[in-house]
Design a protein that fits this description.
Length: about 190
């Protein structure tokens, strides 16, 4: 589904009136596990080019109603393609918002994404699911749950527990099957 989405989003952004780099935002969403609302607020001044990280200001915290009360800034590593995707945005700097990396309306991004998704007949995928995809990829690479929580901004590890449980269960199942196969070969 993600590959189909990326191809369709690429076609959408190739239209002469298109301004939103949907494919770059899709990739960036997965590699950073950020919400679209966080992505559109990112500033060039918050990029640490040396360490390949970016400060995400005032991350959403579902436990707090007022996001302005105490600062909820977080540092996110720009893993894999995230940094190159970010640097490609230098070619698209908006003169009206030169410090914003992705100077687009989050509703426009989501609406365009939903149109493409609907056109492809994909019904059970929301933009927010890209965060889960990003967290799952980090877990599959072997990062511990606390590191993944740091990247995603989750304060409650129980939310990420389901992802880890599923991955561990799959590893367990595969391992047990391999043991079974080996025992059959020895007989």
């Amino acid at each position: 589904e993600l590959q189909l989405l990326e191809e369709a989003l690429h076609a959408r952004e190739s239209h002469r009136s298109a301004k939103i780099p949907y494919c770059d935002i899709l990739k960036f969403s997965i590699y950073t596990a950020m919400r679209v609302g966080e992505i559109v607020k990112l500033k060039w001044s918050d990029v640490d080019h040396e360490h390949k990280t970016i400060k995400v200001r005032d991350r959403k915290d579902p436990r707090k109603n007022d996001t302005n009360s105490n600062s909820n800034d977080g540092l996110v590593p720009l893993l894999e393609e995230a940094y190159p995707v970010l640097m490609r945005q230098k070619e698209r700097i908006d003169p009206e918002n030169p410090n914003l990396i992705f100077p687009y309306n989050p509703r426009s991004i989501s609406a365009g994404w939903q149109r493409v998704r609907s056109k492809l007949g994909i019904e059970d995928l929301r933009y927010h699911d890209l965060r889960r995809e990003g967290a799952t990829r980090l877990a599959e690479k072997g990062y511990d749950i606390r590191t993944v929580a740091q990247v995603t901004g989750h304060k409650n590890l129980n939310i990420l527990h389901d992802i880890y449980t599923e991955i561990e269960y799959k590893k367990f199942s595969k391992s047990e099957f391999e043991k079974y196969q080996k025992s059959k070969e020895e007989v």
